[in-house]
Specification:
about 120 residues; alpha+beta; OB fold (Dihydrolipoamide Acetyltransferase, E2P); 6-stranded antiparallel β-sheet; about 35% strand
């Protein structure tokens, strides 16, 4: 299982990458594998406010629908519009072209797992 060391992770299989004052959010390799083939991504509007611990997107697969949980309070700055036509990017490349949201966070994040902690809980 791939777990990039430049990111932090959540207990519901999201990854978080801080880039300057933005947070990039996606689903881990294990998360997309648990979902199965993603066939639809319901994304919020740019400018939407998101809340820590709440759903900020929904991914639908051939198996089920699953919420993507937001790790911070903030405002959605960008969504991956490529997922509208190609939701399979989440399966094909979850750590790069399969990103989901860019969020401008308010406040500082807490309770994120390191790559090592995520690997330990994922086993």
């Amino acid at each position: 299982m791939t777990v990039p060391i430049d990111r932090r992770y959540g207990p519901t299989h999201e990854w978080y990458l801080l880039e300057d004052d933005l947070l990039v959010l996606g689903v881990t390799e294990q998360g997309q594998a648990l979902l199965g083939d993603v066939v639809f991504a319901q994304l919020p509007d740019v400018g939407s406010h998101v809340q820590r611990g709440q759903a900020c997107a929904t991914l639908e697969s051939v198996k089920a629908a699953s919420d993507v949980i937001c790790p911070v309070d903030g405002v959605v700055i960008a969504v991956n519009s490529a997922l509208s036509d190609s939701p399979e990017l989440i399966n094909d490349d979850p750590f790069d072209t399969g990103w989901i949201l860019h969020i401008h966070p308010s406040g500082s994040p807490d309770e994120w797992m390191s790559p090592e902690e995520y690997l330990a809980q994922a086993e």
